[in-house]
């Protein structure tokens, strides 16, 4: 009996150390979703044009660094921004690449968007266009799987 109990504790310790299992203590609990899971959900919501639900992905005290240089603070303000902004452009996006940093709870999501050349030569979202890398979003999530910080980096679009 004593040997069996030691074996169970040893096995549990090895599994925790290897990352196969987690401790049940709330201070050591694994996030419910990792940063790339959240990034994929973010993209799924934009694809489904469920812009009003994007705010639910954010922590109450989140900070969003928009590509226009604006800093938006708080889940509700960020949700309002996305509801208004994405409804205007209705992009068709897909994942270009994902890079996950487990220790920092971060994910870099490269987004490709269907775009066409507009009448004055600028690139604009259009469902009939070609997929082009348009932005890289850097997500940081808390242990509850909510976005605490996101930065958007614009990618240069093709000259031709």
Automatic annotation (TrEMBL):
Domain SnoaL-like: 40-150
Signal peptide: 1-29
UniProt keyword Signal present: yes
Coiled-coil regions, chain positions: none
Sorted UniProt keywords: Signal
Keyword Signal: yes
Protein name: SnoaL-like domain-containing protein
Source organism per UniProt: Novosphingobium colocasiae
Lineage start: Bacteria, Pseudomonadati, Pseudomonadota, Alphaproteobacteria, Sphingomonadales
């Amino acid at each position: 009996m004593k040997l069996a109990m030691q074996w169970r504790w040893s096995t549990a310790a090895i599994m925790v150390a290897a990352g196969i299992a987690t401790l049940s203590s709330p201070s050591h609990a694994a996030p419910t979703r990792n940063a790339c899971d959240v990034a994929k959900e973010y993209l799924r919501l934009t694809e489904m044009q469920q812009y009003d639900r994007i705010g639910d992905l954010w922590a109450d005290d989140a900070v969003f660094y928009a590509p226009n240089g604006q800093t938006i603070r708080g889940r509700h303000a960020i949700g309002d921004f996305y509801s208004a902004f994405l409804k205007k452009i209705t992009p068709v996006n897909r994942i270009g690449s994902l890079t996950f940093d487990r220790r920092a709870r971060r994910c870099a999501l490269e987004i490709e968007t269907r775009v066409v050349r507009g009448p004055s030569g600028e690139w604009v979202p259009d469902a009939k266009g070609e997929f082009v890398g348009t932005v890289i979003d850097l997500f940081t999530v808390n242990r509850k799987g909510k976005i605490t910080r996101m930065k958007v980096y614009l990618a240069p679009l093709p000259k031709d």
